[in-house]
């Protein structure tokens, strides 16, 4: 079970992440490190530079995320597992797209949280 502090950390993180993503996704690269791994729609990227490039090259100009409060669990190595469900609207489309995103946050040598793992998937049936 997650402590109230971890729930608060997860809530602050996802709020920051999606606010930045919607405003200027290029700024998200600072949340990743060279050891980070992201899978976006089954396409893997490794390292902050490659992840940043992937995020910049996404084929839409405008996006708005709406999400439910995240589920959070501590990991055995002191990290944080965060699961998010939500909807996004791209380029002022009329139909929101459902998505799922999983993050694992870890601390770097300076003690700052970063995204170690990131899995994003549109939920389509």
From TrEMBL:
UniProt superkingdom: Eukaryota
Chain's role: Facilitates protein transport into the nucleus. Could be part of a multicomponent system of cytosolic factors that assemble at the pore complex during nuclear import. Has a role in nuclear-cytoplasmic transport of proteins and mRNAs.
Pfam families, per the entry: NTF2
Localization (cell): Cytoplasm; Nucleus
GO biological process: mRNA transport; protein import into nucleus
Keyword entries, A-Z: Cytoplasm, Nucleus, Protein transport, Transport
Main location: cytoplasm
Name used for this protein in its record: Nuclear transport factor 2
InterPro entries to which the protein is assigned, alphabetical: NTF2, NTF2-like_dom_sf, NTF2_dom, Nuclear_transport_factor_2_euk
Taxonomic classification: Eukaryota, Fungi, Dikarya, Ascomycota, Pezizomycotina
Cellular compartments per GO CC: cytoplasm; nuclear envelope
Segments forming domain NTF2: 9-122
